[in-house]
Structure prediction request, 547 residues.
Amino acid sequence: MRFSLSFLALAVLLLTACPPGPAAEPDAGAGKEESLAACKDGIDNDGDGFTDCADQDCLVFALCVIPPDAGSGRDASEAGSMDASQAGSMDASAASADAAGPVASFAYLGADPAQVPLGGSATVKFRALDSWGTPVARLPVVFSVAPGGMAIVENSGESVADGTVTTTLTAGAIAGIVVVTVLAADDNTILKKSDAIAISGGRINAKNLSLVCPHYSIGGFQKHGLEMECTAFGADFSGAFVPGSQVLLLTEAGAVPSSAAFSADPASGGIARFTYRTQCREPRDVPPLGEAAGDPGNPCTVMNPCKANPGIEVRTCNPRDGWATLVAISTGGESFQDLNGNLERDPGEAFVDLPEPFVDANDNGTRDNDPANDNVEEFYDANHNGKWDDRNGVWDAYTAIWTSVKITWTGEPTELILTPGNDSGTGAGGASPHCASLQYRGYLKDARGNPPTAASSTADRVKATCTSNCKVDKVSPYDDSEGLVDVTVSDAHSCPAPCTAPGCLPTAFAVDFSLSRTLDAKGTATMEDDLNPVIGPDPAPRTGLFE
Prediction:
């Protein structure tokens, strides 16, 4: 009959049945019966007169608590020495684990939490398994963590009834990635490493706060309701994302949500996505910088749909009239130069001193507060003192950190400027050799002087038509970053056959330019259907000679 004995009953049985011989002084240089290997080597390792499972120090191992012959070497009277309550105290899972063979592997069960703040802790678990996948109980293990200096772990433990072994990882003062390793105490070849465990700085650093939009030009003056998805990225100084952090949003024009949360998902941590939409609240109309700054301004006529009585307005326009500031704000430390690589700012290390966040609507790099001239720029009052605070001259480990981008709002094309692409295509009166090519470059601008926003399509282009003695070889796709299109025109003669008189006498040519189709404002497709600005034929066609 197979049965289980409690620790106490078995110890009494062994001491009664096998009285020790003459007492022997333990050998001070001998080993100890404290590992599975020592408890099955047939040697009295600690010199106390008991060998292997006869030594009470070995009774912590399943091998000694339930010997292989437990069902054949004991009779019913021995079984009766354990009462029913003792026999039932071991549940099925513990009995299964006790009956498992030697440990063969470990399985990583996870860390809770998966990301640990500086100075925080996490529970890291593994499971000991035999070669059949059965959990192994009462297995002594050793833990370690790498790289050193970033965290510590409880360095030893023992598996419980379901084979689980647990250690506590405590993060230090340095952020980064660590890995915990477990190994069997009596066989260091049986080990398992955890997945990467992130130690986060707990706060975002200004050097790792950024704001990105898929494009920085949108047809907001052509259509309200256009949308694009922008993204804020945030991480601590070491680059580890900080779960649960928020980004606040301010915009000069259009609309954005007031805030967005940085994702805590390990696969997409430190990312906050939000929608930017064009609508009333257009970019501020700002004065030109002046002739000396290369921004004299130009008279323009624009439609303002955001007034109570929308209508045509005559202004002095400049490209900055279409620039809209978008600001992302979080809390954390100011950026610094880490000269010694310790991920902390030390005295003497340079840093970037930040003022309180503000919307630079007139693009002059500072916050303006001039109510008399209607020039008051929005700001975020981080310290709630009721006023905007400039740089304070000291490094702040915890403050409002921020970044900003400019998004250009554009209108329909109102101007096409043509320039020759080489010396031969000089326009009126220009001359080029027979069988040669000419390249013209067309620049498109809206009323404020910015390149109109266009969909990325080869069909969005300027149309060139040869009206006499030439052919159009190529029209490049429209580039809305500069508003340009290149047009290549060549001689209409059959080339490269020899060209002799009279067929190769100087031949006048002419080419007309116009806008071939809509330059769609970026945004949702349903918002682009009615955007159909068209520029008519150029009033001064390019002419020249092939000679």
Notes: The first helix runs from residue 7 to 17. The CA atoms of residues 338 and 344 lie 7 Å apart. Confidence is low (pLDDT under 50) at residues 1-30, 66-94, 421-429, 523-539.
